[in-house]
């Protein structure tokens, strides 16, 4: 049913004269310019109307009952209860008559009473009559006045009652009957009684609430808090100065009647936080666009807060409060929703997007003392991640803009996006994306060995896919990411596209070409045979053994012989290990015999790459490094990896600047190991830098000028072997001078000298004219087959 708008006809500037049957004389009448919705009308709005006509705090206001005359129809307004009574009395009428009386002009002309016989007729219940006259029969006020809770916040709407001095009893009684010429007794109106009462009260009248009454206000407003200015030109106009809620108070909020808020959302959040801090559960009994009523979730608990918008202002105000809870603490609070948790715990989610659910539950219990179901916590974390990272589907439409901005910020970078279009009338569908930062490419070429590890890993988002990566090794034997690509799956076509783009991005090959090491992923081998047939290609021995074992060749002995063959530096040692493996198992020997040994044994490696690496731990390290990014939307994932690399480069630069040596830390450690092993070697100098070294009954030839050893370890790695180390020391030289240039601090510095430049936020990205691609179809990835779950 539609609500009623009330107009107020305001009588002001006069007095109520009993000699004229309680008529309002000596003033004028105006229609207040603004109507009020009856459901939003409260004592605060009445006070506002009084202030507009220059009335002071403590002045009186009456309304006339529409069905009664002036002498018995004037009703005093002092509280919300009286305002509700007025609205009910008006019934279907839309105009209410208000009569304003100033304490300074109150005059009842008592001389007219001396001509009549006054018969004292004291009421049987004097206190009850006084309470009824002051509006204290309201159950709310009975509860307030009977409460012993010192923290009870009395409603400032009761100006003239609870804040004023106690009324003095009149000598003629609270209720009197006046008899004139034996006529029927005529009851005096509320206005007449109140005017008599007013003269016996403190002439200053009741005061408006001070700062201590309405909240914790300091004498000086902080400079960073915006407050409404005082209108010094409003003479004779004394508005309430109600407090304005500040966002800084939200952690430990305090409220009072009349407090102002910028929005209903701010009010609701304040009430939620206030009750959550004390362990109480609330609900919003009324929660529409105009007014909000808050009650306790526990039946019969008296707690209640009501607020509504101030007419003509963008201000929401508390109109009444009953702050007392008589319920016990609640440990399961429905106001703690998943959305609320996502919002309030956002700092934690930003620092730990994948925070464990148990840790999240413990933190909420510690802060607010509530217990939250696990599923609600999972939903909260998912919502927070969505807020932080955005939608997986939506981000595919942003890849063009992101790539253009990244290329602008990092000049020389190679970023390619490949889309497919099923039909001309349909939008393009995202297929692949190549990301090669200029700093990574130039740093790799300037400061790393020509060794590239290739690998792929699953993406964990809803659209799956694979992330392919190319990783090198820096001078300190740490992984060095070169480039990556997001593709639909590990296929010959996708691997071929990635390798072809990578080779083109890197440019001219070094002397001896590139050396690749991989895990023999599906589609990679045929792609490499087609695109880089003449480059050195290695197989990760760990994955080789996994396939070897899965083929039925199990056992510790076979494993040891395979590893011995893989790590042998000479062909003679390799063949010896293979013969021993053959003696253990002919099928195992036959399995390995068909695999080119140059792909998995050090004895067959070239000496250009200066690496004896037989396991692809380069890529494994990178996959672990980006683990937390693999479940994020595509742009967020790439941006997370870029940011990690940007910070990593700077940390490396700082570490390099503090390192005081000519070779890198890990190579220093390896030289110390060579020193320990060299004590078992006995050198014999033959001249011209050549030595014969005896070690455990075997003899090795070392040539310091050519930097070679017949064990081939020095040749392949570029780091002096134990045989060479003892010869170098024998010659009174520093072994560090015989370490290959690839391991120098100069090369280490060159790898991290290029900068990965920072990126602006999304609202500052370049806008491209390319048609925005849509998300790809979800493709089942190769891997272990799903098994039916046992119930």
Automatic annotation (TrEMBL):
<dbReference type="InterPro" id="IPR058594">
    <property type="entry name" value="PB1-like_dom_pln"/>
</dbReference>
<feature type="compositionally biased region" description="Basic and acidic residues">
    <location>
        <begin position="198"/>
        <end position="209"/>
    </location>
</feature>
<keyword id="KW-0479">Metal-binding</keyword>
<keyword id="KW-0862">Zinc</keyword>
<dbReference type="Pfam" id="PF04434">
    <property type="entry name" value="SWIM"/>
</dbReference>
<feature type="region of interest" description="Disordered">
    <location>
        <begin position="160"/>
        <end position="238"/>
    </location>
</feature>
<keyword id="KW-0863">Zinc-finger</keyword>
<feature type="region of interest" description="Disordered">
    <location>
        <begin position="768"/>
        <end position="791"/>
    </location>
</feature>
<dbReference type="InterPro" id="IPR018289">
    <property type="entry name" value="MULE_transposase_dom"/>
</dbReference>
<dbReference type="Pfam" id="PF10551">
    <property type="entry name" value="MULE"/>
</dbReference>
<dbReference type="Pfam" id="PF03108">
    <property type="entry name" value="DBD_Tnp_Mut"/>
</dbReference>
<dbReference type="InterPro" id="IPR004332">
    <property type="entry name" value="Transposase_MuDR"/>
</dbReference>
<dbReference type="InterPro" id="IPR006564">
    <property type="entry name" value="Znf_PMZ"/>
</dbReference>
<dbReference type="Pfam" id="PF26130">
    <property type="entry name" value="PB1-like"/>
</dbReference>
<feature type="compositionally biased region" description="Polar residues">
    <location>
        <begin position="218"/>
        <end position="230"/>
    </location>
</feature>
<dbReference type="InterPro" id="IPR007527">
    <property type="entry name" value="Znf_SWIM"/>
</dbReference>
<dbReference type="GO" id="GO:0008270">
    <property type="term" value="F:zinc ion binding"/>
</dbReference>
<protein>
    <submittedName>
        <fullName>Uncharacterized protein LOC118344866</fullName>
    </submittedName>
</protein>
<feature type="domain" description="SWIM-type">
    <location>
        <begin position="700"/>
        <end position="732"/>
    </location>
</feature>
<feature type="region of interest" description="Disordered">
    <location>
        <begin position="109"/>
        <end position="131"/>
    </location>
</feature>
């Amino acid at each position: 049913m539609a609500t009623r708008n009330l107009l107020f006809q305001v009588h002001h500037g006069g007095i109520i004269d009993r000699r004229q049957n309680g008529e309002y004389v000596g003033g004028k009448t105006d229609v207040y310019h603004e109507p009020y919705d009856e459901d939003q009308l409260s004592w605060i709005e009445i006070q506002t109307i009084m202030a507009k006509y220059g009335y002071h705090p403590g002045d009186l206001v009456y309304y006339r009952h529409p069905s009664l005359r002036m002498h018995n129809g004037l009703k005093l307004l002092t509280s919300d209860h009286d305002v509700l009574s007025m609205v009910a009395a008006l019934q279907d009428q839309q105009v209410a008559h208000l009569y304003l009386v100033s304490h300074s002009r109150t005059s009842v002309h008592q001389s007219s009473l001396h001509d009549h016989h006054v018969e004292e007729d004291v009421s049987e219940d004097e206190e009850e009559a006084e309470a009824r006259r002051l509006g204290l029969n309201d159950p709310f006020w009975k509860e307030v006045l009977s409460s012993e809770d010192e923290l009870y916040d009395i409603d400032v709407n009761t100006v003239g009652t609870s804040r004023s001095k106690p009324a003095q009893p009149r000598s003629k009684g609270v209720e009197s009957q006046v008899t004139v010429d034996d006529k029927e007794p005529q009851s005096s109106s509320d206005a007449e009684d109140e005017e008599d009462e007013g003269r016996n009260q403190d002439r200053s009248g009741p005061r408006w609430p001070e700062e201590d009454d309405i909240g914790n206000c300091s004498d000086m407003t902080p400079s960073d808090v915006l407050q409404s200015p005082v209108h010094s030109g409003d003479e004779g106009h004394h508005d309430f100065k109600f407090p304005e809620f500040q966002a800084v108070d939200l952690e430990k909020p305090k409220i009072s009647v009349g407090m102002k808020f910028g929005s209903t959302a701010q009010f609701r959040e304040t009430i939620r936080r206030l009750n959550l801090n004390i362990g109480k559960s609330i609900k919003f009994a009324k929660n529409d666009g105009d007014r909000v009523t808050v009650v306790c979730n526990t039946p019969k608990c008296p707690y209640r807060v009501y607020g509504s918008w101030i007419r003509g202002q963008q201000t929401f105000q508390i109109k009444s409060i009953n702050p007392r809870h008589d319920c016990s603490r609640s440990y399961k609070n429905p106001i703690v929703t998943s959305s609320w948790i996502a919002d309030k715990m956002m700092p934690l989610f930003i620092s730990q997007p994948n925070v464990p659910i148990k840790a999240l539950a413990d933190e909420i219990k510690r802060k607010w003392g509530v217990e939250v179901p696990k599923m609600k916590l999972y939903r909260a974390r998912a919502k927070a991640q969505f807020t932080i990272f955005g939608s997986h589907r939506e981000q595919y439409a942003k890849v063009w803009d992101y790539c253009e901005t990244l290329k602008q910020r990092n000049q020389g970078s190679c970023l390619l996006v490949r889309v497919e279009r099923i039909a001309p009338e349909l939008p393009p569908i995202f297929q692949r994306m190549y990301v090669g930062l200029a700093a990574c490419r130039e740093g790799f070429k300037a400061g790393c060995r020509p060794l590239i590890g290739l690998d792929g890993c699953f993406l964990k988002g809803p659209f799956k896919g694979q992330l392919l990566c190319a990783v090198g090794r820096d001078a300190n034997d740490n992984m060095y990411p070169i480039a990556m690509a997001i593709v639909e799956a590990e296929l010959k076509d996708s691997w071929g596209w990635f390798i072809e783009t990578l080779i083109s991005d890197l440019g001219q090959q070094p002397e001896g070409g590139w050396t690749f090491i991989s895990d023999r992923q599906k589609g990679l081998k045929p792609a490499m045979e087609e695109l880089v047939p003449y480059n050195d290609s290695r197989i990760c021995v760990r994955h080789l053994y996994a396939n070897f074992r899965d083929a039925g060749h199990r056992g510790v002995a076979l494993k040891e012989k395979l590893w011995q063959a893989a790590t042998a530096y000479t062909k003679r040692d390799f063949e010896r290990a293979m013969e021993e493996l053959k003696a253990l198992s002919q099928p195992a020997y036959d399995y390995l015999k068909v695999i080119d040994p140059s792909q998995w044994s050090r004895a067959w490696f070239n000496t250009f790459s200066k690496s004896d690496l037989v396991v692809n731990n380069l890529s494994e390290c990178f996959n672990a490094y980006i683990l937390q990014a693999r479940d994020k939307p595509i742009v967020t994932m790439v941006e997370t990896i870029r940011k990690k690399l940007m910070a990593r480069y700077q940390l490396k630069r700082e570490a390099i600047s503090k390192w005081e040596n000519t070779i890198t830390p890990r190579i220093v450690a390896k030289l110390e190991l060579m020193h320990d092993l060299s004590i078992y070697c006995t050198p014999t100098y033959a001249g011209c830098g050549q030595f014969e070294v005896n070690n455990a009954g075997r003899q090795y030839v070392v040539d310091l000028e050519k930097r070679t050893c017949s064990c081939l370890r020095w040749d392949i790695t570029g780091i002096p072997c134990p045989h060479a180390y003892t010869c170098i020391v024998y010659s009174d030289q520093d072994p560090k001078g015989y370490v290959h240039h690839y391991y120098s601090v100069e090369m280490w510095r060159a790898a991290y000298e290029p900068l990965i430049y920072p990126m602006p936020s999304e609202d500052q990205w370049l806008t491209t004219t390319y048609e925005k691609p849509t998300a790809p179809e979800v493709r089942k990835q190769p891997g272990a087959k799903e098994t039916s779950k046992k119930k």
